[in-house]
Amino acid sequence: MVKPGIKQTEVGTTPSDWEAKQLRDFQPFVTSGSRGWAAYYSEIGAPFIRITNLSRESIYPDLADTRYVSVPPNDVEGIRTRLRTGDVLISITADIGIVGYVSDEIPTPAYINQHIALVRFNPLEVCPKYISYFLASGDSQKAFQALTDSGAKSGMNLTTVSNIWAALPPTVEEQQAIADALGGADALIESLEHLLAKKRQIKQGTMQALLTGQLRLPGFEGEWEDKSLIELAQGKKELFDDGDWVEAEHIVSSGIRLVQTGNIGVGRFLEKDDRKYVSESSFVSLRCKQIHKGDLLICRLADPAGRACVLPDIEEERMITSVDVTIFRPSEDEIDRRFLANVFSATAWFQAVSDRCGGTTHKRISRNSLGQIRLKLPPLAEQTAIATVLADMDAEIAALDAKLAKARALKQGMMQTLLTGRIRLV
User: Fold this and answer.
1) So what's the pLDDT on residue 340?
2) How confident is the model at residue 149, as a pLDDT?
3) Best exposed site among 81, 179, 407, 412 by fewest CB in 10 Å?
4) Domains of the chain (ranges plus CATH)?
5) CA 276 to chain centre
6) pLDDT at residue 103 above 90?
7) Contact 154, 96 (CB under 8 A)
C-alpha cells in the first residue's frame, strides 16, 4: 500500500507532485560522436572526451588523461558533436550507462566520439545537472545494468537513450536546489581527493629523500652501512625463510590462520573477507612455521614482487604464511623493521627485485636472489627517527582517507534521499 502523498511511478515511489518522464518527453537534442576522429588527433587543441574520461564516482569528466583534437571550424561533424555547458553525456557502448555532465569548467570547444551519447535539454524546462545526478543514482544504474544483462552488450542506440526514465520535482528551481546540494558534496569530495593526492606525493618525495640519505634529519650525520638482506639475517635460515607449501586440500574454515600473498600490500597489511585457515593436523603434517606479530613479510610473487609489510596484530592466536612469502627477522638491536618496510616500498627496491625476477608467465624472485640485494642503512636511531616521520605522514593520509570515505558515503545518502523526494529542499 502506497502512503498518502506518495505515488508509484515507472521509476519507483515518488512524492505525488513529482512526475516520471522519459527523456524524449523534453524533446532534447540527442546525438553521438562520429567514427572519424582519429584523423584529427593532435598534441594540443580541443579536449576529446571518451568513456575513459567518465566515472561512476562523479558526474564530472576527468580530464587528467585527455586526448586532443584539431577540428576545422566549419566541419559538420565538429559542429554536431561540439559540447555545450549543460550537456548530459551517457556511455552507450561497452560499459553502458556511465553519466557525465558538461560543466563550465570544461574548456571549450570540446568533443565526443561515437561511444558517448549527448543529450541537450532546454534549461528553462528541466535542470540538466539534476538529470545527470538522477541517471547516475543507484536505481537508474540498476536499469542500465538490466538493459546490459538483457542483451545490449554491444551498446545502446539513441532511441533507447531517449526512452530512459527519470523522476523530477515539479519545478526547475527545486531540481536546481537538489543539483546544487549534490554539487556541494562533490566539491568537498574533489577537494579531499586533491589534498590526499598532494599528501601522498609529498610522502613519496620525503621517502625518496630520507631513505637514500639525500635528506638527513636534524642531529644525524656520518656514513651509512652497506649490507645484504642475508647478512642482516646473520645467514640464519630461521631469520630468513619461506612460508609453507599449503595446497587447496589443506584449507579449512577455522584453525590456524594462513596469511596469503594477497594480504601483503605495499608497506601495509591488507585484511580480506575470505580468510583462510589450516587445521591442526595439517599444521603438524606440513611441519609449518609459525609467524608472529612484528615479522617482516616479503612477497616474492608479482604484482609487484618484493612488496612487504610488518605483520600487525590481526587478532589471531596462531598464524602461518604461504611458500611465496619470505619471513624476515633482522635483529631489532640493529634494524627498525618499520624502516625496512618503507625501504621495501620504494621505487629503487622494486627495480632491484625486478632485475632479479625470473619466469615468463608468473614473475617471481627466489629467496636466494632476494637475500643478495644490498641496502644502505643508517644507524638504528636514525632508522627509527625516519620510520616515525613516515608513520606520522601515513597516519595523516589514513585520516584523510577515512574523511574521504565518509564524504562519499554522505553523498550516497544524500542521493538516496534527495533524488527520491524523501527530503525536500524547496
Assistant:
1) 96
2) 60
3) 412
4) 6-168 (3.90.220.20), 172-206+383-426 (1.10.287.1120), 225-377 (3.90.220.20)
5) 25
6) yes
7) no
Q: How confident is the model at residue 270 (pLDDT cuts 50, 70, 90)?
A: very high
Lowest mean pLDDT among 45-49, 281-285, 311-315: 45-49
The cell for 34 is 562520429
The pLDDT assigned to 10 comes to 87
- Chain-centroid distance of CA 209 in Å reads 27
Residue with cell 584523510: 400
Q: Which residue has the cell 574520461?
A: 53
Dist. CA 216–CA 272, nearest whole Å: 37
What's the whole-model pTM score? 0.84
The full 3-state SS of the chain, as one line of letters, equals CCCCCEEEECCEEEECCCEEEEHHHHCCEEEECCCHHHHHEECCCEEEECHHHCCCCCCCCCCCCCEEECCCCCCHHHHHHECCCCCEEEECCCCCCCEEECCCCCCCCCEECCCEEEEECCCCCCCHHHHHHHHHCHHHHHHHHHHHHCCCCCCCCHHHHHCCEEEECCCHHHHHHHHHHHHHHHHHHHHHHHHHHHHHHHHHHHHHHHHHCCCCCCCCCCCCEEEEHHHHCCCCHHHEEECECCCHHHEECCCEEEECHHHECCCCECCCCCCEEECHHHHHHCCCCCECCCCEEEECECCCCCCEEECCCCCCCCEEEECCEEEECCCCCCCCHHHHHHHCCCHHHHHHHHHCCECCCCCECCHHHHHHCEEEECCHHHHHHHHHHHHHHHHHHHHHHHHHHHHHHHHHHHHHHHCCCCCCCC
Check residues 109 and 94 and name the one with the higher pLDDT. 109
Closest Cα to residue 335, out of 371, 382, 369, 298?
382
Q: Is residue 99 a contact partner of residue 135, using CB atoms and an 8 Å limit?
A: yes
Task: Name the nearest CA neighbour of 301 among 367, 233, 351.
Answer: 367
Sign of CA dihedral 279, 281, 283, 286: negative
Residue with cell 581527493: 193
